[in-house]
Amino acid sequence: MLIVTTCKVKERIQNHLEERFPTVKFIWTDSINEAEAYLEDAEVLITYGEDLTNEHIEKARKLKWIMVISAGLDKMPFEKIAEKDIAVTNARGIHAVPMAEYAIAMLLQVQRQARKLYDLQKAHQWDRTVKMETISRKTMLIVGTGAIGQELARLAKAFNMKTIGVSRTGEQKPYFDECYSNDRLNEVIQEADFVIGILPATPYTEKYFGKEQFALMKSDAIFLNMGRGKTVDEQALIEALRAEQIKHAVLDVFEQEPLDSASPLWDLENCTITPHLSGIFRTYQDDAFEIFTKNLEAYENGEGLILNIIDPKRGY
Q1: pTM
Q2: Does 16 qualify as catalytic in the annotation?
Q3: Which one from 212, 257, 300, 303 is the annotated catalytic residue?
């Protein structure tokens, strides 16, 4: 069995896998350009999911499994993958803790005026008139009730929040007081103090949050998106922020990344921008390869893949 990487993998992880699977041949390349020389013989590909094209899938005639060591799959050539009947797994779940912590941290920095206080410190100014708010006893609407959404809801309960979830099925999930299907979004969004987007990029979720949704939100609501940028109508959000229809937006993802330096979002006082890092943490690769290792053990034993299997036709 030949396993090829299209991304840089820590040497410590490489050594561990080679020792754990002595009958498997690993070729560690840092990019898809380097990996192309080995695609024809690869049975397994390990990638971040942003570099594969239809041509790569056609060339990889022996390919049976793609491991995506991230959760986002919106740039994968799924039609060709489905046509070739190639299995796909990802690292879904490892982002739950860092992304939930990110959301709480960002909401706190807005409500507790962290930006204003930092500016006052730099100016050597003592000003106790800065208006402080809390996040406790508020209502949080989480759109996307998977592992990340559930971990965020769990943390929100520590702040005595009411937690409402919205998802495709509306199925009740742990730590949510109420769960609804997508067709109830416009109804429940009016109740929320904090609206959190954790949606994948699919044809259905494109511009999921738009002019209508921002108009329905409370004027003192905070909107936070850490799912995918294409799930938000960026121009509609800019207009809502300029008109102060909502209090603040926290954005970690954007329609185009990196965010254009000319984007009006940079200069809006009621917008906080971070460069798509809500899911980053020090042991990211270790956790992703733990999932891969368990799947490889089962795969090598002829049991098939057991964790985080993706449906290529749905894209998640």
Answers
A1: 0.91
A2: no
A3: 257
